[in-house]
Amino acid sequence: MNNMTSFEQLYLSYYPKLVRFSKEYVLSEEDAENIVQDVFLIFWEQKEQLPYLRNIPSYLFKLTKNKSIDFLRHKMISAEKQKQLYELQMHELQYRLYAMEQFGENVLYEKELNAIIHQAIQSLPQKCREIFILSRFDELSQQEIADKYSISVSTVNNQITKALKILKEQLKDILKDYLYIFIFLGLL
């Protein structure tokens, strides 16, 4: 190939054949046309090496075949990623649906929830309850609580840990019902 005219002749002669050939692989006329355009672009960029080619039509068909295969591989990977994304979205929608169903069936109103929590706190042993309230509601540090009761910081820590363990056990069923709502609302 010595000049632009011979490239144009080759393009006009083989473009329709290569599009039909590629379409056998990729099925879409538009995709086949894009692939063949890419083939001719590569062909043009390598025009210095072309005098050494023995069979230019064979080279064009081989390049078209390889580009078509690359296109299909890319499409398969893309389809697999879309499938995974779709499955993830479906799981999320199912979880949200479940959360909404739980919202309607198991949710207590705020006053009722506060009453249940208050009752659970009141059921703690007296010293444990007092230390817990000072820590969580009055926001005193463990050192301040220890100083107030003339006890060690580790005793304060032990009492708070004990309170949390008891409350967690007493409130686990209620918290489970609210967990779905918190997740649904994006709070967790």
Helix content: over 70%
Number of strands: 0
Q: Roughly how many Å apart are the termini?
A: 67 Å
Estimate the strand proportion: under 5%
| Rg from alpha-carbon coordinates | 36 Å
Quick overview of this protein structure:
The chain has seven helices and no strands. It has 188 residues and is an all-alpha fold.
Q: How would you describe this structure to a colleague?
A:
The structure is a single chain. This protein has 188 residues and is mostly helical. It has 7 helices and no strands. Helix 1 crosses helix 3, helix 2 (29-45) crosses helix 3 and helix 5 packs across helix 7. 12% of the residues are buried.
Strand and helix map with partners:
Blueprint: H1 4-26, H2 29-45, H3 56-106, H4 110-122, H5 126-136, H6 142-149, H7 153-184
Helix pairs in contact: 1-2, 1-3, 2-3, 3-7, 4-7, 5-7, 6-7
List keywords for this structure.
mainly alpha; 0% strand; 188 residues
